[in-house]
Design goal:
Elements (H helix, E strand, L loop, with lengths): L3 E3 L36 E7 L5 E5 L2 E5 L1 H7 L1 H8 L16 E4 L3 H11 L12 H14 L2 H13 L4 H10 L8 H9 L6 H7 L1 H16 L13 H13 L3
Parallel strand pairs: 1-5, 2-4, 3-5
Antiparallel strand pairs: 3-4
Helix pairs in contact: 1-2, 3-4, 4-5, 6-7, 7-9, 7-10, 9-10
Protein name: BTB domain-containing protein
InterPro entries: BTB/POZ_dom, SKP1/BTB/POZ_sf
Pfam families: BTB (PF00651)
């Protein structure tokens, strides 16, 4: 019976990089033939089913045949997972009929991670959008691939992300608080209050705190619609953010 493995969502811990052993370049699968079809209800990924792959993974019905050494080298989670004892006669991950099933993620997200572990051109990176870098960050965080997690965070910090999505993402992964002080300021100081969809996105607790911070800013004359600006407006708004959202 296929086991179902959910990757942990703990924040990545520093990991020791080991040397990359020399090996032959992986060969792409030649494609499906009537005598070489995957199990019913499943499909092989066109780019990540290597002829010389030695571990089979499944995510949302998509099969990947990749290299255990590659996963182990970069991810301590995979490394520990492969070390778990298995019952005799039921070794998972050796065939398409008995793959290791990955849960708690979309196949597109795992595919995107593999695109960085197996770049089509050495050193190439086709990840460009904020949504893609968020996906890479989440996958790297799940599998504790520190170098990709750091790379994704650097790209997210250099990208413009609207206040609410950035705040929610940063809070979800417990990223540095100072990175979202400005997004909070933008929400507090903007003329209009949160829309219904924005309120639903942030949830009741955060909605109440945002409303409280907006009231404090208005009372101190710090918002554009309150009729004036404080000389130290940014510092005052930052103080309100810390008082409301990060009380000591």
């Amino acid at each position: 019976m296929t086991s179902r493995i959910s990757a942990p969502r703990e924040l990545a811990t520093p990991m020791v990089q080991v040397g990359r052993p020399l090996r032959n370049l992986p060969k792409r699968s030649a494609g499906n033939t009537p005598a070489d079809m995957p199990a019913a209800g499943k499909c092989r990924h066109s780019d990540y089913c290597f002829d010389d792959g030695n571990v089979v993974l499944e995510c949302q019905g998509t099969l990947y045949k990749v290299h255990r050494s590659t996963l182990e080298r970069h991810s301590p989670v995979f490394r520990e997972m492969f070390m778990l004892p298995q019952p005799e006669g039921s070794i998972e991950g050796l065939s398409e009929e008995n793959p290791i099933t990955l849960e708690g993620m979309e196949a597109d997200d795992f595919t995107r991670l593999l695109s960085l572990l197996y770049p089509p051109v050495l050193g190439d990176c086709k990840i460009t959008t904020v949504e893609e870098w968020m996906s890479i960050f989440e996958q790297a965080d799940r599998w504790q691939i520190d170098c990709l997690r750091d790379k994704a965070l650097r790209n997210l910090r250099m990208s413009y992300i609207s206040p609410i999505p950035k705040i929610l993402f940063w809070m979800r992964f417990r990223l540095p608080e100072e990175d979202i002080v400005q997004p909070f300021i933008d929400l507090i100081a903007r003329p209009n209050s949160l829309s219904l969809s924005e309120a639903q996105a942030v949830g009741l607790e955060l909605l109440v705190k945002i409303a409280c911070a907006r009231d404090m800013a208005r009372d101190e004359g710090l918002c554009p619609h309150s009729g004036g600006f404080s000389v130290r407006r940014d510092e005052a708004l930052s103080r309100i953010v810390h008082e409301v959202f990060y009380p000591s």
